[in-house]
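Write out this protein's structure.
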Amino acid sequence: MSFITDLIKEKAGDILGNVSLPDNLKEQVVGGVSDSIFGSIKETALKEGGIDQLIELFTGRSSAAASPVTDLAGKLFSSDIAKKLGLSPAIVSAIVPMIPKVIETFTSSKKIDVNDLIAEVTQSGVTDKLKDVAGGILGGFFK
């Protein structure tokens, strides 16, 4: 597993520790939140204007709560992950509001190297051209 995915899972585990979940679901829910956040980053990077949205989120120009990246992560969790895990609407309602907090701690982490993030997204299906464009744009903000 990659460093970025591990970091997302760590932050999700910390924050979701406060949500009352059955013991047999905790690890799956943390993994599902991680998958929805990473999926949101990947989908955002692939769409027109997505790199700008990621830059705004990772530079603090957009709060996690107001970011379309966060909104998409919540939708991915609600529509895909929650159904796969068979989560009740009550559990989903408790988890989705936590996603902005997870993203906020993830994006404000001093451990994140933007090049690592781009490499991870690239390995997940984003083209080399996007990697070059994103690396040039994001690299200037994070150096």
